[in-house]
Amino acid sequence: MVSISLIKERALAIGFDLVGVAPVTTGQDLEFSKQWVDRGFGGEMEYLKNPKREDPRRVLPSARSVICAGLIYNTPRPYSTEACRGANAGAGGAQPHPAPASGAAATAEPDRPGGPFSRDDIPRAWISRYAWGHDYHEVMRAKLEKLRAAIEALAPQVETRVYVDTGPVVERALARYSGIGWMGKNTCLINEEKGSWFFLGVVLTSLELRPDMPAPDRCGTCTRCLEACPTGALVEPYVMDASRCIAYFTIELNGSIPREFRPAVGSNVFGCDICQDVCPWNSRCSGQLPVASGQLRVASSQRRSVAVTSLAEFQPLEVSVSAATHSTPSPPAPLPQGEGGRRPGEGSVQSPTRSFSLFNPPLEALASFAAEDFGRAFARSPIKRAKYRGWLRNLCVAIGNSGDRRFVPWLEKAARHPHPVIREHAEWALERIAREEQKEGSGAPRRVAS
Question: Fewest CB atoms within 10 Å of the CB: 133, 261, 271, 372?
């Protein structure tokens, strides 16, 4: 019989941060997943209706066990609730996460000092933490294939299948039963020692392995994630209506983002991290943590810090944009107030090639991308999933929420785009900026998120 401890040793040696063994049947969780889809919470994600997801043995009939692995992708950079403020943070009233007291996160710079995008007066966008680096599917798959090879070397007749968020397997349900984390109220898997910033992958195997015990739920009475969600996507503890989620709107949805949710999208142009940012288990410094009894306490035994990775693949990519004239809407160059007798945004100036980090990037820089720039910059990034059309749509919403008139020329060009979805979102953004200008002109308090 193959040793479970030996398999786990191999997994950790390959570079995984978490590993556990789950039974092939996790009836209650898989049934909940089916009911969740049946209630319409999956939105337009039709692939979630695949009946194979209801039982891993429909994928691999000989499956007897599931090896679940986790890989940390968190980096020591500020959270969105630290880096974004006001309209730039979304309209849900998420409270700023306690800033890190020391270390790299306390001094991280969005861009190189003195660089073209390093000024404080430009609106910035937020890209979900998991998408700052290389595509996790590729990184995880490569490591899982090594683990599969190690298992097959230990048991030459074994049958295996490997999945990383692309097959008819509910990885999160299986991982919960493997003991590497509990299902949080934000529906993310949370590990007591490392937090929730980790990717999941599974190896279905015909080996009969003794499963680990599921981790106990340690969310207690905490409801920070539910209270912080700008769109109310967390309709109740442990239940997310994905059709209301900012990540769904900016990644999975092909058509128009519902108008009633656009202000709440804030500066998010790809995904959203808020429900993880505010989670106490992702805190970078010691403090109050929920415990299983539902009470909050501060004790020396609870002092901990969320895990971070040094893997180069998950550090924020440095991308560049060219100032060549594009057939798609070109970026508005920021102009100082009163330069040449014009208000900011009443003209555009071509600039040389510039580079910037995907951590809290300037909206201006992202709006500089033509289709070829997008394809080149994100060829190995999860961001390519949104496609260029979705990218422009998302930028229109974030720009509208910024209230920055300097983007009016860009939006006017986007409003003439061949695709109706982009035109509609650009027109919405122009109306939003004009409406806020009218409020300012009348002396009414400015409410960008209204």
Answer: 372
Judgement on whether residues 254 and 389 belong to the same structural domain of the protein: no
DSSP secondary structure string for all residues of 345-364: TSS------EEEESSS-BHH
The per-residue pLDDT string of the chain (450 residues; one tens digit each, 9 = 90 and over) reads 778 999 999 999 999 999 999 999 876 777 777 777 777 777 777 766 667 777 889 989 999 999 999 999 999 999 999 887 544 445 433 333 333 322 333 323 334 333 443 445 689 999 999 999 999 999 999 999 999 999 999 999 999 999 998 888 888 889 999 999 999 999 999 999 999 999 999 999 999 999 999 999 999 999 999 999 999 999 999 999 989 999 999 999 999 999 999 999 999 999 999 999 999 999 976 555 554 333 333 223 445 679 999 999 999 999 987 655 333 345 443 333 332 322 333 333 334 457 899 999 999 999 999 999 999 999 999 999 999 999 999 999 999 999 999 999 999 999 999 999 999 999 999 999 999 888 877 655 444 333
- The count of structural domains within the chain is 3
The helix/strand/coil state of 423 is helix
Q: Hunting for tokens 């299983």 — which residue is that?
A: 292
Which H/E stretch holds residue 146?
A: helix 136-154
CA atoms of 314 and 138, how far apart (whole Å): 12
Judge if 34 and 171 occupy the same domain: yes
Residues 154 and 52 in one domain: yes
Q: Is residue 9 part of a domain?
A: yes
Q: Are residues 271 and 404 in the same domain?
A: no
- Smallest Cα–Cα separation from 449: which of 403, 394, 392? 403
Residue 325 included in any domain: no
Q: Which residues are catalytic?
A: 165
Q: How many helices (H) and strands (E) does the chain have?
A: 15, 14
Pair (152, 261) in one structural domain? no
Q: Are residues 65 and 88 in the same domain?
A: no
Residue 230 lies in domain: 80-113+119-125+220-312
> Residue 44 carries which DSSP code?
T
Domain membership flag for residue 341: no
My answer on whether 153 and 228 are in the same domain is no
Answer yes or no: do 154 and 294 share one domain.
Answer: no
The DSSP code for 249 is: I
Is 335 a domain residue? no
